[in-house]
Amino acid sequence: MKIRQLAAAILILLCLTSAADAWAQDRILVFSKTQGFRHASIANGVAMLQTIASTEGWTVEASEDAALFNAADLARFRSVVWLSTTGNVLNDTQQMAFQNWLEAGGGYVGIHAAADCEYDWPWYGASVMGNGAWFLSHPAIQSANVIRESASDISTAHLPPSFQFTDEWYNFRANPRPGAQVLLRLDESSYNPGAGAMGADHPISWKRTAGMGRVWYSALGHRNETYADMRFVQHVRGGLRWAMRREDAVFSNGFEVVLPRS
After folding, report:
1. What's the chain's Rg over C-alpha atoms?
2. All domains of the chain, ordered by start, with CATH?
3. Best CA proximity match to 246, nearest among 150, 154, 111
């Protein structure tokens, strides 16, 4: 019994040490496993995230290995990006490890088809996507008018109040707004939303909390070209900063102050 207790104590110590190191090093896991449709833009997304990380002094580990979703490995990362994941990408044990990690204070960033996975996992729909806002359908790729709801959020402050953007526009099974802060929404009168149209209130990017963790999601990101569009790059950069608790306060004198971790 003493041997088992000692082994458990050592494992906990290693996880805590690894977690502290992850906070210091700002490691990000970019997870892009697909069990359904696979987006050709995943490679572009990985490259964009690596570029963002290099300019921010962060470290990126890109993988499609779901076995990384265990307590010890997740403790190495400050944030996990689900990059156009589709289908059931985690088993029950991996799901629980991810849930525990996120609710204990991890940071999640979901891009595009991260809403098109784990339909059989109620917690993912409720706590990650928010209010069961899984993917429902999409019309043909087209330009639409995007409305910025938050002028002060770190992931949207660089955007104008409204702007034209071309993408594959998702309709969702539910509106996440009751449990999330909507960052961007679509003006459905500016394009053809097709079957599943959401009407006057069509969120397309939002953020929320899950326990002590932070969740940020944007449905933009279907096309290869999107990952070179600086509007989107800055959008994701801001989402990562927020999810990782790396928001910066920029004052009128031009000096940038890094806020303490919360």
Report:
1. 18
2. 2-137+174-182+204-258 (3.40.50.880)
3. 154
* Segment (H or E) for 51: helix 42-56
**pTM (predicted TM-score):** 0.87
Q: What does DSSP assign to residue 241?
A: H
- The pLDDT-based confidence of 4 (bands split at 50, 70, 90) is low
Residue 110 identity: G
> What is the spatial distance between Cα 124 and Cα 118, in angstroms, rounded to a whole number?
7
Q: Are 63 and 42 spatial neighbours (Cβ–Cβ below 8 Å)?
A: no
Taking the C-alpha atoms of residue 8 and residue 135, their distance in angstroms, rounded to an integer, is: 40
122 membership: H or E segment, kind and range: helix 122-123
**Alpha carbon 54 to chain centroid, angstroms:** 18
pLDDT at 257: 35
